[in-house]
Amino acid sequence: MKVFIQFFKDSLEEVTSGSRVYHLWMAFLTLVMLIGSYCYYIQVDQGLIVTGMSDGVSWGLYISNFTFLVGIAAAAVMLVLPAYIFKDIDFKQAVLIGEGLAVSALVMCLAFVVVDVGGPANLWHVIPGIGVLNFPNSMLSWDIIVLNGYLFINITIPLYILINVYQNKEPKKNIYLPGVFISVFWAVSIHMVTAFLYQGLQARPFWNTALLGPRFLASAFAAGPALIILILTVINKFTLFKVENKTVNKIAIIVAVAAQINIIMLISELFKEFYFPTHHSISAHYLFFGLEGKTALVPWIWTSIILNVIATVMLTIHKIRTNKKFLLVACIILFIGIWIEKGFGLIVPGFIPGQWGEITEYTPSFIEIGVTVSIWAMGAFIFTVLAKTGIAVETGKLRFAKK
Amino acid sequence: MSKKENKNVENSQNTWHQITSENTDRRSALKKITAGLVAGVGIASTSCSVFSEDHEKEASQMSWDEFFKKNYKIMSDEERVQTIQRLESLYEKKTGNTINISHQGPMEDVLYGYVFNISKCQGYMDCVNACIEENNQDRDSQMQYIRIHQIEKGHGFNFEKAEDNYYNEVPANNHFYIGTQCFHCENPPCVSVCPTEATWKEKDGIVVVDYDWCIGCRYCSASCPYDGRRFNWGQPHVPEEEVNKNQHYLGNRLRKKGVMEKCTFCIQRSRSGQNPACVDACPTGARKFGNLLDPKSEIRWILENKKVFRLKEDLGTEPKFWYYMD
Fold first, then answer.
1. Do A165 and A394 meet the contact criterion of CB atoms below 8 Å apart?
2. What are phi and psi of A295, to 5 degrees?
3. Contacts of A137 in chain B (CB under 8 A)
4. Among candidates A125, A182, A173, which has minimal Cα distance to A154?
């Protein structure tokens, strides 16, 4: 217990001290979060009417980001498994960074759900015991369980490793390894369950496809590790923590393969929707070409597809992938491409056209964008804090001093 | 019946102006935040303090109890009576007027169903207006449970070609009309997906929402194939003199912002043996409502003698809402 208190004191000191760049970065994130809090205050005060959502498109930017980030959270940890199989990578490092990213992504996920509901004060209604959780009927109740369980696992494992290293002890593999494996399989489940949220709705033919879950996995396996490559580059530049080139190269292969599979699945979907268009292809038609002159999503989806294709080609060519600069560019492009695809390309068109064919378009409001950006800032803030502590412990800067 | 003009008006832009002007005024926002905090502390302290006035204490105690009450579905009869008394007296304290909230349960051997005669509907939309008045729907957002689709003849039931917000004189030449609303499915997807069981199917087949238990996630509205659900995006508002004071806990009692609502076959009317307001308001007799379990009912006669059909039957939701033509 004493160790824990000391650990938190030391890490608090660690995260509140740093270079000028670090302080500026944290101050910037805090400012964004404050602006977002003000936007959220307006939303709570006036209701969700201040967002761009309506009875026509009743989920928008918040749920899109939620969906995307579930993928990031899942992929961050699934990366651990290949890292373990390849053997030649420092396994602990991959666990720490991956799970730190998973924790931040999960907190963002939960935050996006909280800001999306109409009655955040009533959220205790889902807690079994004092509330009523509709389990196992509602896929949303499954999602609540798997996401919170996943968050718990991903907090405890790194904490166990760090607290041991902090005390100069070697963390026991037979204690944390089972946890890591549970977490890897759990990662698949959070992703599939989230896909099932949409996939199970017979009212929305656009989502009601068996490919939805697998495609979630493929795109997450591309976007998540792409983000990790970017983060590792930043960590390499700004900290003493050195990640070897071969680690980055291995991750890049995962990104490349996942991006290829994602494109194959996209082609399969396009073929099914457009070879012989049925009535159920109408949402896809709206997404890719517009309907009755309404084309709000058309530029988005084509941008996304072009970005995806360019990034995939870049990653596939060995010479480009192994060039650091090009690799970073490809990762950024891919990340943006998939963010659009999972957001505007997946959630919004599910609602368009509506159940009786009416076309209601959706544009997020400034307040919605403000809240969204601030939740991303919160995620970055949490990740920075976690990573800084983790790195300080790993590099031996932070150690338990017996008094 | 003379030709009538539709009173369907565009959503007012007022709410947006209110919001934007609020945004710019930071000082008043800060004031509101502080006021909110003070009120929160106030509720806590008045309910604990021995010095505060008794009636203040009582009111804050009531709001406290209201917030922490259970899902209506699992409340005992006694708890139901208590929450209704609280709601009635809170309303009286706020407005000085009395309301009557019923908690009448389903009757034995009753399963409600609805039929719609497409040949008769002329698109007058009296049903829509009666529904709004009966069910205390938000006037600001012009919320409507019923949609009347105006479809040009010669394309069949092509809802994509339908006009749902028409402003022409009715009945329009060469058009026909078909109404949709919540179909009170026997196998309702909205009920399965709700994470808190805030919506369920009653014994008499009516799909209801507990407005105080709903968390506002809108999963039900995503899952409904029939566009049967409406969300309170802003604070709903009904002018005091227009409030229907004859209410049911699961029906037309006043809603708050951030919760889902829907057609309840006018539960406050149907459970006391009346027709839903839309049925009584229809000037052409296109709407019929009744007990499916009563072999002598008119609805049973129609189901057995007319060539009835339902919409999107392939989805397996088993709507209790049929259509037919003469």
1. yes
2. -135, 30
3. 192-193
4. A182
> pLDDT tens digits for B45-84?
545 555 556 777 888 888 889 999 999 999 999 999 999 9
In chain A, where are the structural domains located?
27-394
Provide the terminal-to-terminal Cα distance of chain A, rounded to the nearest Å: 15
* Interchain CB distance below 8 Å, B198 and A125: yes
Would you say B269 and B204 are in contact if contact means Cβ atoms under 8 Å apart?
no
CB atoms within 10 A of CB B163: 16
What domains appear along chain B, each with residue ranges and CATH number? 14-102 (no CATH), 112-324 (3.30.70.20)
Q: Is A380 on the interface with B (CB under 8 A)?
A: no
Adjacent-strand bridge partners of B117: B324
Q: How far is B107 from chain A (nearest CA, A)?
A: 26
B192-225 pLDDT per residue, tens = 999 999 999 999 999 999 999 999 999 999 999 9
Structure confidence at residue B13 (pLDDT):
41
Question: Looking at this predicted complex, what is its ipTM?
Answer: 0.92
Dist CA B102 CA B84 (whole Å): 8
Whole-angstrom distance, CA of residue A360 vs CA of residue A343: 17
- CB proximity list for A107: less than 8 A, separation 6 or greater: A151, A378, A379, A382
Alpha helices of B166-317 — where are they, by DSSP H?
189-193, 219-223, 267-270, 277-281, 298-305
CA angle B211, A358, A205 (to 5 degrees): 80
For residue range A202-257, what is the model confidence (pLDDT) as tens digits? Answer: 999 999 999 999 999 999 999 999 999 999 898 888 888 777 788 888 889 989 99
Q: What is the pLDDT of residues A137-194, one digit of tens each?
A: 999 999 999 999 999 999 998 889 888 889 888 888 888 888 888 888 899 899 999 9
The per-residue DSSP string of A282-309 comes to HHHHHHHH-BTTB-TTHHHHHHHHHHHH
The answer to whether A320 touches A326, Cβ cutoff 8 Å, is yes
Contact B231, B215 (CB under 8 A): no
Q: Where are the beta strands (DSSP E) in B42-111?
A: 100-102
Does residue B217 sit at the A interface (CB-CB below 8 Å)? Answer: yes
Provide the token pair at B88. 């009635």
Mutation target vs A (from B11, B14, B18, B19; most A CBs, 10 A cutoff): B19
Give the residue from B187, B233, B255 with the most A CB atoms within 10 Å of its CB, the best one to mutate: B233
Q: Which residues are B177's β-sheet partners?
A: B150
Contact (Cβ atoms closer than 8 angstroms) between residue A390 and residue A98:
no
| Residue-wise pLDDT tens digits, A338-381 | 999 988 899 999 999 999 999 999 999 999 999 999 999 999 99
Picking from B284, B3, B1, B5, the residue whose alpha carbon sits closest to that of residue B166 is B5
For residues B163 and B174, give the distance between their C-alpha atoms in angstroms, rounded to a whole number.
13
pLDDT at A192: 92
DSSP, res A347: I
CATH class in words for A27-394: mainly alpha
Q: A383: buried, middle or exposed (CB in 10 Å: 19+, 13-18, 0-12)?
A: buried
Beta strands in chain B (DSSP E): 100-102, 112-117, 147-152, 175-180, 199-201, 207-209, 229-231, 246-248, 260-262, 287-291, 321-324
Percent of chain A with pLDDT over 70: 97
Q: By CB neighbour count within 10 A (0-12 exposed, 13-18 middle, 19+ buried), where does A173 fall? A: exposed
Q: Token digits for B64? A: 């406290």
